[in-house]
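> forwarded from #structure-qc
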């Protein structure tokens, strides 16, 4: 999976869980806490959805350090790389 595909997956899960309009422009540099409806429990649901989607488990410390959509994308890519071995 490349970065663009991972970014789109993260945006898809954010849109679904946060009930964001499809035409809302999301960028990698967008802070997660400034996305409309991004309460901590809802962001944890996004994390859980991504873990389930790719059958991976994210490092708890890395999840806590996630501040932007790009950081969450990196989290997905790192977990997939670790899963490959």
């Amino acid at each position: 999976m490349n970065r663009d595909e991972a970014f789109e997956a993260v945006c898809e899960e954010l849109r679904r869980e946060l009930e964001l309009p499809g035409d809302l422009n999301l960028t990698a540099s967008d802070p997660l806490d400034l996305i409309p409806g991004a309460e901590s429990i809802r962001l944890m649901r996004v994390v859980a959805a991504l873990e389930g989607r790719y059958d991976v488990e994210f490092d708890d410390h890395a999840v806590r350090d996630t501040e932007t959509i790009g950081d969450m994308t990196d989290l997905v890519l790192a977990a997939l790389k670790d899963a490959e071995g």
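QC bot note: Residues 34 and 68 are 9 Å apart (CA to CA). The chain has a mean pLDDT of 95.
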